[in-house]
Design a protein that fits this description.
The protein is an alpha+beta fold. It has one domain (4-144). 30% of the residues lie in helices and 39% in strands. The protein has three helices and eight strands, in the order αββββαββαββ. The strands form two sheets. Strands 1-2-3-4-5-6 form a six-stranded mixed sheet. A two-stranded antiparallel ribbon has the order 7-8. A hairpin with a 2-residue loop joins strand 1 (28-32) and strand 2 (35-45). The radius of gyration is 17 Å and the shape is globular. The relative contact order is 0.13.
């Protein structure tokens, strides 16, 4: 929704984040010692009505089993824990579970400023918070409520294949 109707305006922080994502956003595959690394992997969940793109998904070889996917999200700032970052990563894990039919119990956030990686376990509490966030955003979109930026999201209808949304700024 950021880029619909030109609502989003870059600033120093968002530009730094864009530069950080340049490599992760360039599609590609790399193999390293038992790990296949896929960049800019498209994700979706028909069940949850989500679609997006993972910065990186690492597929770790498992003895005698399928590869274990691990989504990795890049953030520009120092190592810290934000619930919204964790929920975003968990949503990527939920999409991967549906797409691949395998459990995705955890992911990781790479904090560029500190060059540190933080593991995020997709436990029951985080999954619940992620589902709640998805449902709250969907309700806000359907209601056309104003959010904190003075932007109203208006539901325009559905053709049966998906909803159409428009963002208006006042």
């Amino acid at each position: 929704m950021i880029h619909v109707d030109g609502v989003f305006v870059n600033n120093t922080y968002t530009l730094e984040g864009s530069f950080l994502h340049d490599r992760a956003d360039t599609p590609g595959v790399e193999n390293r010692a038992g790990v296949r690394i896929v960049r800019a992997l498209p994700l979706y969940s028909k069940k949850l009505g989500l679609s997006g793109k993972a910065d990186i998904v690492e597929f770790h070889k498992q003895p005698g089993g399928p590869e274990a996917p691990l989504p990795v999200d890049y953030k520009r700032g120092p190592r810290r824990k934000w619930v919204n970052d964790d929920a975003q990563l968990c949503a990527q894990g939920l999409c991967l579970e549906e797409m691949l039919g395998v459990p995705v119990p955890k992911g990781a956030i790479f904090h560029a400023a500190s060059k540190k990686r933080r593991e995020v376990v997709f436990d029951t509490a985080l999954r619940g918070a992620t589902f709640e966030t998805i449902n709250n955003i969907r309700a806000m979109l359907e209601a056309g409520r104003e959010n904190w930026l003075g932007t109203t999201v208006v539901f325009l209808g559905s053709d049966g294949g998906g909803a159409t949304w428009r963002i208006k700024q006042f």
